[in-house]
Design a protein that fits this description.
Distance between the termini: 11 Å
Order of helices and strands: HHEEEEHEE
Number of helices: 3
Number of strands: 6
Helix content: 40-55%
Strand order of the largest sheet: 3-4-2-1-6-5
Radius of gyration: 20 Å
Number of domains: 2
Largest sheet: 6 strands, mixed
Shape: elongated
Strand content: 15-25%
Structural class: alpha+beta
C-alpha cells in the first residue's frame, strides 16, 4: 500500500470512528436526560453515571475530530532516506519478526490492514517514534519495554 492510499484509509477509519462516538454520545446524553433517569433518592446515580459516559464519548469524538482535521491537511513527504513525519518504516526484531509502521501526527496505535500486511500508526512522541526519527535504513534502535530492551533494525524507509 502506498502513502496516499494509506492516508485515505486512515481518514476513512477516523471518519467512521467519529460518527460512532458522536452517536454514542447522543445515546448516552438521551439516557442521562430521560425522565426515567430522574433519581428516586440520593443513592440513585444512574443519570449522573450516564452523563459521565456522555461526556467521555463527546470528549473522544472531539479528539478524533482534531486528528481527522490533521490527517486531512497532512502533506505527505516524498520518499526520503531519513525517517520523519509521514514516513513508512519497516522494522525487524532479533527474531526476524517485521512490523510496518507509519509515522503520523496523531492516533498512535491505529492499525490499517493492507493487502499484504498490517500497518500501525505511531506518533513521534511515542518511545518507538522518538527513537526512529532521524534514523535511516540499516540503523538499529532499542526500546525499553518494562524490564526488557527490544532491539529493531530498520529494513525499509519510504
Amino acid at each position: 500500500m502506498n502513502k496516499p492510499e494509506l492516508l485515505q484509509q486512515i481518514i476513512a477509519r477516523l471518519t467512521h470512528d467519529l460518527e460512532l462516538f458522536l452517536s454514542a454520545a447522543k445515546t448516552a446524553h438521551r439516557a442521562a436526560t430521560h425522565e426515567e433517569s430522574v433519581p428516586d433518592n440520593k443513592y440513585d446515580t444512574l443519570a449522573l453515571e450516564a452523563s459521565y459516559v456522555a461526556q467521555g464519548q463527546a470528549n473522544r469524538a472531539q479528539d478524533i475530530k482534531r486528528s481527522l482535521d490533521l490527517y486531512k491537511q497532512l502533506p505527505l513527504a516524498s520518499d526520503a532516506k531519513v525517517i520523519r513525519l509521514t514516513s513508512m518504516v519497516t522494522i525487524e526484531d532479533d527474531d526476524g519478526n517485521r512490523r510496518e509502521l507509519f509515522i503520523g501526527p496523531a492516533e498512535g496505535g491505529l492499525k490499517i490492514r493492507g493487502s499484504r500486511t498490517e500497518i500501525t500508526v505511531i506518533t513521534p512522541v511515542s518511545p518507538l517514534g522518538r527513537e526512529l526519527l532521524g534514523k535511516s535504513r540499516g540503523d538499529t534502535v532499542e526500546i525499553e519495554a518494562g524490564p526488557n530492551v527490544i532491539g529493531y533494525e530498520i529494513v525499509a524507509v519510504g
